Amino acid sequence: MKIQCPKCGFSREVDAEKIPGRASLATCPKCGQKFYFRDPEPEAEPEEQAVPEERPEPDRQEQDGQEQEDIWSTLESLDSEEQEPAGTGFQKRSRGSFRGTGSRVPWEDLQSHGVVDGFYQTIKQVMLSPMPFFKAMSVDTNFAPPLVFYLIVAEIQVLARFFWGLAGLAPQMDSGTGLPGLGMFGAGSVMVLFLYPVLMALMLFFASGLNHICLTAVKSGTAGFWGTFKVVAYSNAPMLLAVVPLAGPLAGMIWSVVCTFLGFKLVHRTSAGRVVAAMLLPVAILFLISSFMLVIRGVSGG
After folding, report:
1. How far is CA 292 from the centre of its chain?
2. With contact defined as beta carbons under 8 Å apart, do 194 and 144 qualify?
3. What does the pLDDT read at residue 283?
4. Confidence tier at 138 by pLDDT (50, 70, 90)
5. Residue 109: CB partners within 8 Å, gap ≥ 6?
6. CA atoms of 302 and 298, how far apart (whole Å)
7. How far apart are alpha carbons 278 and 16 in whole angstroms?
8. Taking a C-beta distance cutoff of 8 angstroms, is the pair 30, 8 a contact?
9. CB proximity list for 67: less than 8 A, separation 6 or greater
10. Can you say whether the dihedral through the CA atoms of 69, 75, 79, 84 is positive or negative?
11. What's residue 36's pLDDT?
């Protein structure tokens, strides 16, 4: 059943079987409007008994609705929490209980937004409102939408680099198979269209796995691997700034790191210090490995 607020248009799909038969009043979690989402069932008792019994029920529902409005007003964003309409007998649920249906990510609701608008709205929310975005994001095992989103951003990046390389505003892409310098002609074009997305997909899984191991090491991976995976995938949105020559890629990388930090903190519900430690741990490991290799090379050369 689709319950939609007549005032602001906010809607949510709710399993009709889980709605109590006598429930008919709802309070919109976004604008606070109270409305009937279906006709109230008639009372079987005589009229003189039905009135005093039915009147307190809306009052109690209105009181509960007022409490929920007070809760919503303290949130950083009215659109940042998963909430079922009041008056249906539902309690506020955690993100994990909305697997596949409770996510507010536009890219994961293409039936409502469409491909172009879903992609645009997701980019906009990640870059301009990362905290509400990651607070509202559900965590589930459906990795296809974030993976496809990540690959689209990666393809736009490489095409932008090629274009600005032709214009002389960025280094030219070579014709070999090295990453990220994939050629755009002959065999190179095939690499960009087919092999590059495969390699980027593998890179996404590797980066997500490494980050999740580090988060787990500092006791912060509470949302599981797929929570980390979705944060890494959607936090790549600012890399679209690569369409801006010169400073665009650097700005996008910094912005992406900030979004990743906020995503880990909010999705895994952990402290900023633990997230910083987890994000710096791979850098420290790579530094130690590089230092070790240099020492071995120096000893071998000596």
Report:
1. 38
2. no
3. 84
4. confident
5. 103, 118
6. 6
7. 42
8. yes
9. none
10. negative
11. 75
- Tell me: the pLDDT tens digits for 39-83? 765 555 555 544 454 444 444 444 444 444 333 333 333 333 334
Q: Which amino acid is at 245?
A: P
User: What is the pLDDT averaged over residues 20-39?
Assistant: 72
CB 111 within 8 A of CB 243: no
CA-wise closest residue to 12 among 22, 27, 20, 251: 27
CA angle 282, 283, 287 (to 5 degrees): 115
219, 274 in Cβ contact below 8 A?
A: yes
Question: Are 43 and 51 in contact, with CB atoms under 8 Å apart?
Answer: no
Mean pLDDT of all residues belonging to the chain: 74
Q: Which amino acid is at 279?
A: M
Concatenating the DSSP letter of every residue in the chain gives -EEE-TTT--EEE--GGGS-TT--EEE-TTT--EEESSPPPPPSS-HHHHHHHHTHHHHHHHHHHHHHHHHHHHSS-TTSS--PPBTSSPPP--GGGGTTTS---GGG-HHHH-HHHHHHHHHHHHHH-HHHHHHH----S--HHHHHHHHHHHHHHHHHHHHHHHTTSSPPPPSSS-SS---SSTHHHHIIIIIHHHHHHHHHHHHHHHHHHHHHHTT--TTHHHHHHHHHHHTTGGGGGGGSTTHHHHHHHHHHHHHHHHHHHHHTT--HHHHHHHHHHHHHHHHHHHHHHHHHHHHHH-
pTM beyond 0.70, yes or no: no
Cβ-contact 187, 255 below 8 angstroms: no
Q: What is the chain's length?
A: 302
Tokens of 120: 């645009």
Residue type, 64: D
- Could you tell me which residue, 263 or 11, shows the higher pLDDT? 263
As a whole number, mean pLDDT of residues 127-152 equals 92
Tokens 């490995």: give the residue. 289
| Contact predicate 243/153, CB 8 Å | no
- Residue pair 14/24 in contact (Cβ under 8 Å)? The answer is no
Output phi, psi for 2, to 5 deg: -100, 120
